[in-house]
Amino acid sequence: DTEVTQTPKHLVMGMTNKKSLKCEQHMGHRAMYWYKQKAKKPPELMFVYSYEKLSINESVPSRFSPECPNSSLLNLHLHALQPEDSALYLCASSQDQAGGPADTQYFGPGTRLTVL
Amino acid sequence: DQQVKQNSPSLSVQEGRISILNCDYTNSMFDYFLWYKKYPAEGPTFLISISSIKDKNEDGRFTVFLNKSAKHLSLHIVPSQPGDSAVYFCAASGRTNAGKSTFGDGTTLTVKP
């Protein structure tokens, strides 16, 4: 099973709303990732969790707050977003964060976020 | 400075022919390279990878070639099928920067029946 699931599939929110994106994997992977992808652009790394601890934060604004409750789950809490934050948000997981084949990432289908 | 470049935004080939997608990189610390395929409104799907200790890796219709001296890799798809029509991303990572795969901008492949 190489499946990463993400909910919701679509999300529309106002700039004052608080919402959360959820991601789950059952591959026993110990590294999980959040990416943001704009149309016709490559995925842009936001956060990396390794063994449930935040290991990489790519200088993401604080209106995005990640959380890793356990090794299978990854959340992204959203608050006071801007219209320019509208994008496809992708979750991924990999066996580890050790380089080489362990870094092969398996992506979820994404959440299409629209901020009004 | 873009460390992974896919210079062809799009490629169109006839069904049954070979598709060759190219990728160049500048960072000599990269030692692991991947290709992902992405359909619209879906997440990228891992396709094939190659370690820097190899120069070729084959998986069915897909073969990736790595030329370290030229810092160039390519993905060959043969024979191409209409279902291969998608955006293909090249990505690279290194042990000194584990977990931070650097992606190219992608090449849109269209396979015509």
Quick rundown:
The complex is a heterodimer of chains A (116) and B (113). With 116 residues, chain A is an all-beta fold.
Major sheet size, sense and barrel closure of chain A: 7 strands, mixed
Percent strand of chain A equals over 45%
Determine the fraction of residues in helical runs of chain A and give it as a percent range. Answer: under 10%
Largest interface: A-B, 33 and 26 residues
Which value, in Å, is the CA radius of gyration of chain B? 13 Å
**Sheet of most strands of chain B:** 6 strands, mixed
Mean pLDDT of chain A: 93
Instruction: Spell the H/E element sequence of chain A.
Output: EEEEEEEEEEE
Strand content of chain B: over 45%
Unreliable sequence segments of chain A: none
Identify the quaternary structure here. heterodimer
Which segments of chain B are poorly predicted (pLDDT under 50) over 5 or more consecutive residues? none
Write down how many β-strands of chain A occur, each being a DSSP E stretch of 2 or more residues: 11
* Rg from alpha-carbon coordinates of chain A: 13 Å
The arrangement of helices and strands of chain B along the chain is EEEEEEEEEEE
Shape of chain B: globular
Outline of chain A: globular
Mean pLDDT of chain B: 94
Helical segment tally of chain B? 0
Report on the architecture of this protein.
The complex is a heterodimer of chains A (116) and B (113). Chain A is mostly beta strands and 116 residues long. Helices cover 0% and strands 55% of the residues of chain A. In chain A, strands 2, 4, 5, 6, 9, 10 and 11 form a seven-stranded mixed beta sheet that branches. A four-stranded antiparallel beta sheet of chain A has the order 1-3-8-7, with no helix packed on it. The model of chain A has no long low-confidence stretch (mean pLDDT 93). By secondary structure, chain B is mainly β. The termini of chain B are far apart. At the A-B interface, strand 5, strand 9 and strand 10 of A face strand 4 and strand 5 of B.
